[in-house]
Amino acid sequence: MKWNSRTRCATICLGFVLLFSAFSFRLIYLQMIKHDQYAGLAAEKHVIKQPIFAERGIILDANNELLAHNVPVETVEADASRLTDVDATVDLVSAELQLPRSEVSEKLHTDRRYIVLKREVAKVNSDSLRQKLRAKNLRGIYFEQDATRIYPNGAMLCHVIGFTDFDHKGIQGVEGSLDEYLRGQDGYRYIEHNRAGQEIVLYRGQERASRNGYQVHLTVDLNLQNIVENEIDAAMRQYLPKKATIILMRPQTGEILAMANRPAFDLNQRSDAKPEQMKNRAICDMMEPGSTFKIVAAAAALNEHKFGLDSYIFCENGIWNYGGTPLHDHAAFSDLSVKDILIKSSNIGAAKMAVTLGDQKFYEYIRRFGFGERTGVELPGEIPGLIRSPNSWSKISITHIPMGHEIGVTPLQMATAMCTIANGGKLMTPRIVKSITTADGKAVSTLKPIVLRQ
Question: CB 260: neighbour CB atoms within 10 A?
Fold first, then answer.
């Protein structure tokens, strides 16, 4: 009997040892081997990575006049799985956000966990809704901080400034070309919630602050821009063209002081704009420059010492047969000086200067003036224009190109060429951006005038 008791006691003790060994092994397995996995699951449930959104940088003119800035708004969202009283929530949300009740009801009578009810809600409206939800103890509606881009001058400079999409990404104009500087860098923080969904501030974890976007200062002078806008509108009323462009530049630096296109659109109502209204015709429309191109032939002939300003050229009394094709002037000019050829816009005089240069040399000067290549202005969508090489010219191309035929240029290319004449033959890179700074005025980048060639 005594031996049997000892046997039973030993057996029971062995059983407890094995049981506690199993529990210990399981505890060690969970605490050490599977620790990272279960810690991650717990973190997913109670700890979230909350983004800290950066504020997009503002855009200013040369005199620090505001061209684009941000207004705080909120996006109202819902988690249908957390709604406590769907019908009451539908009534309140539809009334406060001025949305059709049927639309809100359709969205909330689901099991979706992420529902966007309305974007760009003004702070005063979102705060009112938030307070009423709390008063009625209604849960499941959330508010995400956001900002909407505002352009205080409406359609003025619309093609230069551009705009952003719903994700605050620059699409056109400076908003697009300098998006990397304007958008900033978002930050984040890890936060832990209790069972009621409220943040436990004491347990707030790792955090990285956001960096707001830089400020972009343009070369444009809003006072001059206003004058240009009035003038182009007057021209549209008087001449009724389908499209028009005005560019005002400072020849010595290449700074664009004003730029306007028609048709245009209101940046704050861009969803209503038509594609034709959104084109920046100053850099993406190609045209035959006509008689304005005669400056190239004259400048080339003068620079090569083929003629002087007071040298006379016989203009054939209005008709000149070259290459088997007659070339006409608008009047029967006889002898004209180089200066008068430009003043009176003689086709024959310009053609004779180009013929004296020869195909290849005249083509070289066309390229040296910047035609056939992008100017490099800080705006997206610029085209290079069109100029064919001399080996594809016809016999009469040398007489037609000097008067602006058989060539395609952009308005900005033509304005830059004119500035080259005014600047003593120095071709400058056109600039629309003056500098990039932080919000407190510290320089990030200052763009200086660039001489491309003499």
Answer: 27
pLDDT at 362: 95
Which residue, among 229, 224, 249, has the nearest Cα to 158 in the 3D structure?
Answer: 229
The length of the chain is: 454
Residue ranges of domains in the chain, CATH in brackets: 47-76+152-278+431-445 (3.90.1310.10), 80-139 (no CATH), 286-409 (3.40.710.10)
pLDDT digits (tens, 9 = 90+) for 154-202: 999 999 999 998 888 999 999 999 999 999 888 877 766 555 555 555 4
Q: Is 0.90 topped by the overall pTM?
A: no
